[in-house]
Each structure stands twice: as structure tokens, then as C-alpha cells.
Design brief:
HSP40/DNAj peptide-binding domain; alpha+beta; 3 domains; three-stranded mixed β-sheet
Amino acid sequence: MNTDNYYTILGVSEDATQDDIKKAYRKLAKENHPDKGGDEEIFKNISIAYDAIGNEESRKKYDFERKNPFSGIKGQYGEAFRSTFRNMHRGHESQEHRVHTKTITVDITVLDSFLTKEKQFEFNRKIKCEPCGGKGGERQTCQICSGQGQVIQQMGSGMFIQIVSMMCNNCSGRGYTLVNKCNECLGNGTKNETKKVEVKIPHGIDNGQFLRMKGVGDFNEGLYGDLIIKVNLQNENDFDKYDNNLVYNKYFNINDFNEESFEVPHPDGTMKVNFPKNIDTSKPLRVKGKGFKYNGVGDLFINQYLKYEKL
């Protein structure tokens, strides 16, 4: 009996269903049981084979490792290659469980950041196709990569062997092929949707920072990923932001400097600011404690710009 292939031992094809494998095992075990005069070695091989491919998880592992091109290499080099192969397999599994994300960029103003406003955004995302349950149709485990989505190849020989993990071209890295595609989504498993979300802007959020919303991203492989919102901070009503300081660009005419004070439309409420005795428009005026309140308390800086028309 060929003991190199567990499918051959059980007399089933490599694409047999789990039910077919179970039926074949029961028949052979009954025929070859030592208590009924069967060969003990044959019965042992049958049991080992069924332990390896009798359930879906162990079968997948067996199929994947059976295609390991380094299984026949002996000694320390063979073990090193097999260890690398196993690490690649584990790395692939960890990537499968990593939550996927969708990133959008949104415009948020300086005053939104200061006042922690509620903002509503629209974006396009992929949702689950209901007729096929997001599967795209009837799936069949890829026969080339045994459902792993990648294949391992050996390049070179002797001491100069390179191990290369490559995406399986037969299934495009998905681990399965579609037998009958869904007519609704044409095999994609998803449809397009315009989604509205409402977000409360954290106080002091800055340009280039991110917000994460769990479970409202694209649908992919059975679950909805996270939405990542990248902030594009913009000035508003002559207000800017610098670190935790609020910056206001104030424009004066020549007569304004004869007054004692001027007003600033601060987001906490209009405030009156007195002119200094000596006015120097090259330097900003500073009002302590009127900036953003995170990482300490920032200040309000007022840039003075003069607009003057000659008669």
C-alpha cells in the first residue's frame, strides 16, 4: 500500500468531500480491523490517514504542507527550510485575521476642532451582497494552493536555495475559485453604497491626524472593516491653529489704531482686546489661556495686518 498519500490510502480523490472520506474510512476500517482478521499495519495506516484528512482543518494543513518543496530535505538545512515554511504559513494566517480598513480624507475647520462639533460625512463603501451572502457565488477550494492563497517555490540548489512565497495565480490569493457566480454582484460579493456617518470632532484635533470608526468600512471576506478618517484641517473666519495655540488674523485700517481696543470673534464669545501703548504690527498680540486646552492650555495670538488705501 502507498503510504505517501493519505488520499490514496483511503481510496478517495483529492477533491473528495468530507462525507466521502468518512464513508471510505468506515468501510476500510471495518474490512481491515485486526479483530476480524485484518492486517494490523494496514489498519494503522488507515487510522493515521483519517486523522490527517478526516476533518476540514487538519486536511487543509495536510494539503498545504504536502506541497512543501522542502519536505524531502534532510538534516539541519531541511529543518531550517521547514521552519521558514511554517513561519510563512503562520504569517499568512495572521494576515487573514487582520481587520481591513478604508481611509477617507475629510475637511475639518479650526473652529470645528475648537468647539468639538458634530460633523456629518458621506463616503462610498462596499456592502455585502445579500443574495449570495457576500460570497460572490458557490465557492470551491483552490486545488493549487489548497485554500491558502499562496504557493511556496524553491529556487536554486545545494547551499544556494531561496524560498519564495508567491500569490496563487489560480485563485488570485483568495484561496478559492467560484463555480457559479452570483448574478446580482457578478461574483464580487459586494455592492456599492453611499454611507452617511456622524462624528464628534475631538477638541484640538490637528491636520493629518486620524479618527477610527469600527465596523463601518468596506465589507470583505465576511466582515465590515474599520473606517479611518484623515483630517484635513482648514482655517475658518480668519482663524488658524498652531500646536495648541489659536491664531487670529485681524485686518485693520489706519484709523483703527487710534482706538483704545478692538474686538475678536473668539469661538467662546466675542472678546475685547486693548491695543498696547506702542503698536508694532510685525509682532502678534498674545492673550494667555485663550487657545486650545489640551497638552496644557494654549494662547490666542493675533496677527495684525494693516490695509490702507492712498487718496
